[in-house]
Fold this protein.
Amino acid sequence: MDFAAATIAGLIVMLAASSARAWPPRQPPLAPPLAHELLRPERWPVEPQSPAPIDPERFRAALATVCRRAPERVPADEIVAAAAAAGVDPFVLAALMVERSRCQPRYTGRDGHGALAIHARLYFRRGAPRPPVAVSEFAWRAVFDPARNLAAGARLLRMWQDRHESLDARFSGVGHRSGVAHFFWGDSVRSSGGEDLVFTTRRRLLAHYAPAIEVPRPSVFGIDVVSPLEGTPRVASSGPGEDRDGGARRHRGVDIAASVGEPVRAIADAVVVFAGVSFAGSIRSAPIRPERLARYRRLALGPGGIYVCLGHGDADRDSASGAVSGARSIVSCYMHLERYLVALGERVTAGQTIGFVGRTGVKSAPAHLHLEIRIDGRAQNPLRCLGDLVIPPRATKTYRWVAAARRARQQRAAVLSSGGGLPATAGP
């Protein structure tokens, strides 16, 4: 190859490289809310397939249940039609609506508008490819029309799905599973947490669309249990013994990542032994009726927030099977609730909805359910009885960040205790 040919070939390579990233990455106008994510997305099992064809009435009923709305108030037909026209999974599109707007067709916020919380600033950037929807679909009249918003969102979802591998090659970003993550982040994905919540909601929708008989499984604590949240497997972001309040106290349970408003279920047959709230430094001893909870949601509550505890009687399984030996009192507690549905002394069954996920008593973490299990008053690790219903905290990025912060704090404390003082460049 002569010099001229080599020069031309070099220019072609340079032009190809520059065209591979020919526009600044499209980004959302507001970073999506924090959500826990796994270190390796491949840790997730294969997602269940969607049924085909879709039964409109069953789909509507499932969507109404997950949205916590009357069936006539959910845009089920519009979702099915939009998904079919764009060639996307209607259960993914429905789950996106649940996570983006909480099923509110007139949702508006800094992150977007309408049922799918779409924002024009994510899609129209100088030099970037034109989206498969017209600018007029981002006008107020269009975004607040559920049919138009869902139709536009379905086409945008298909765009991200078709291009996400090439976009990942051009703009890098963190590991994720599909184009759903790009729906949250644009060209460069910075977290897979939102995508994970969407697929969890999709599993919940599928479970309500085609419900199966749920059989409680035996546990090492001597009680037969089910998952406290729908759509398994769920992600546990924090476990027992981890630091809280800068090391001032220890975590006594397991935090399971969730979305505000999700139903919280009794893990086993039980009797309600506490239904109330925690205040800073104390626990309210008198029970609070469910209908009187509204005023407490507006108060600054202690770490448990609004919560319920269930008594599961005594465990007396054969210890040779791995269960706790002897008859012992077992109590499970469900904290940070938005509200609960049960009263002191009420009997509940495994899988029964006892409340809904909230953020009461939470300072800064994303929404989650805090689950404690106590045997004779001593806190146990709930992961021991939940098994593969929950992905353990060690598989999450949150666990790694918390562990790094704890090591840094211990190192600073060791330096101070040795009398050496902190380096001038050290942080507070």
Observations:
- The two ends are 62 Å apart (CA to CA).
- Residues 39 and 370 are 21 Å apart (CA to CA).
